[in-house]
Every structure is written in C-alpha cells, then in structure tokens.
Design goal:
The chain contains 6 helices and no strands. It is mostly helical. The protein starts with a helix and ends with a helix. The mean pLDDT is 93.
C-alpha cells in the first residue's frame, strides 16, 4: 500500500525496484539482471524506497486515514442494508441510495488505483 500511495515520490530506480519486487514478485537477482545493476544495488534501492515511504506515511498519515475512512464506509453500508431490510417505502429507498453512494465512493478508490 505504501507503494500505491507514495511510489510516485520515489526516484525512478527506487520505484522500479520496489514495483518489480513487491508487485511483480521478482527476486533481487531477477531485478538486478533485468535492470543491469547489482543485487546490492537493487537491495539498496528497495531499502531506501521503503524508508522514504515509511517516513512520508509517519508525517502525513494518509494510509491510516484512508483505512479509517474505508472502515467507516463499510459500517455505513452495513447499517443502510439493515435499514433497507427492515423498512419499506421512502426509508427503504433512502437506505438503498446510501448503499449506492457508498459503492460509488469505493469505486473511485479502485479506479484511481488507491
């Protein structure tokens, strides 16, 4: 998740090494061969990238807030489903609209790559 949130803030080499290691599941040797650098160079880029991203998260807390918001949205959707199941007419319609809006917000996160 760090890479999804903060990857663009890394150097190109750090981002590429982290992406290949974490998203493509390549070994240090495979990355080194692909990028034409040493295994140690790959390791250093990954370590520096991780360190930079963790430092940014400690300062900004974006991922923590994102996760808290996702949990809150889940709870809102759950409560709206309960209301929709126990009511009829306008209250049920409003509850379904709430569920629809929550789903739309969750889609934004998926479509934005976050």
């Amino acid at each position: 998740m760090l890479l999804d949130f903060y990857g663009e803030l890394l150097t190109d080499k750090q981002r590429e090494c982290c992406d290949l290691h974490y998203n493509e599941d390549l070994s240090l040797s495979e990355i080194a061969e692909q990028l034409g650098i040493s295994r140690q160079g790959v390791w250093d880029n990954i370590r520096r990238g991780e360190s930079a991203m963790q430092e940014i998260e400690e300062k900004t807390g974006l991922i923590r807030r994102f996760e808290r918001t996702r949990r809150a949205l889940g709870l809102i959707a759950e409560r709206a489903r309960e209301i929709a199941a126990q009511t009829e007419g306008r209250p049920q319609e409003i509850a379904r609209q709430i569920m629809s809006e929550v789903e739309r917000i969750e889609e934004w996160d998926l479509n934005d790559g976050v």
